[in-house]
Amino acid sequence: MRKLAFHEQKLLKKTNFLEFKHGKGHREGNVTQRYRLVERDDYKKYNGICLMVQKQVNIIKQMDPRDPFRIETTDMLLDKLYNMGVISTKKSLLKCEKLSVSSFCRRRLATVMMKLKMAEHHKEAVTYIEQGHVRVGPEVVTDPAFLVTRNMEDFITWVDSSKIKKRVMEYNDALDDYDAMA
Question: N or C: which end of the chain has fewer CB within 10 A?
Fold first, then answer.
């Protein structure tokens, strides 16, 4: 690489590349950092889903309000998004229109673990998940990008052989002597 000219060096000193905002990418960076998205593709996938839902909503809005197909399609879309936990109510299409990548990120396993007070920080939750300490229902989940629906939220627990589970039970004085021997 050639030696930089004096004016080029001065420009580089004035520019902070760590916090450099360019076009639309700063939103992606903020969401990626806040929810600890390891894969950049996750953001793109969630963004693609949001765009598809918004297109679907626009198509539905163009139909006649009394059309039975519109009513059925609207109910199906609202039910699906509500059961996924992405929207808070099934009342109107306005919630679907304002759908964002953050609403999908809030349903990731690491974020739900923080909400359930199983971990204090995203980094800690991601570590627990990747190390195999967490199960959803009967299956151990090692992918922090796992999306948790409203129904699955109640079945998030520690793996039986996890040392974290033993520590929590010790702290709560719920550890059985038989479990301590095993």
Answer: N
- In this structure, are 64 and 81 located in the same domain? yes
pLDDT at 170: 81
Chain centroid, CA 74 distance in Å = 24
Is residue 17, in this structure, part of any structural domain at all? Answer: no
Distance set, CA 48 to CA 43, 65, 98 (Å): 9, 27, 14
Structural domain tally of the chain? Answer: 2
User: CA torsion 119→109→135→179, rounded to 10°?
Assistant: 10
At residue 19, the pLDDT reads: 61
Residue span of the structural domain in which 59 resides: 25-104
Quick one: pLDDT at residue 119? 92
Are the C-beta atoms of 126 and 144 separated by less than 8 Å?
A: yes
Contact 148, 156 (CB under 8 A): yes
In a domain, 76, yes or no: yes
Query: Where does the pLDDT of residue 2 fall: very low under 50, low under 70, confident under 90, or very high at 90 and above?
Result: confident
Instruction: Name, in order, each residue with C-beta under 8 angstroms of 156's C-beta and a sequence gap of 6 or more.
Output: 109, 112, 113, 116, 118, 134, 135, 136, 148
